[in-house]
Design goal:
This protein is mostly helical. 76% of the residues lie in helices and 0% in strands.
Amino acid sequence: MLTILEDQLEIGRLTLMGEAKNLLDKQLSDLGRVVLKGGGSVSRSDADDAAHREYDAFSAQRKLERQLEAAANIAKLKREAEAAGRKR
């Protein structure tokens, strides 16, 4: 896509951003992609806030999973150490 836009710009077929947008929309449509219309209804700050909330939830879950995995590994090592101590 970028190559097509650069080529069209170099040969002078694109002089306005609107022309570039129209060409990109046409290329996407020709490839069977959905082209979104309008700027959307969610503000940038609301989208950022939602993304931060989602990442915070993901990060908390990942941290919990790592803690549980570490606890399981420690318990396993303790069992192995106790078993090795009894064999002596």
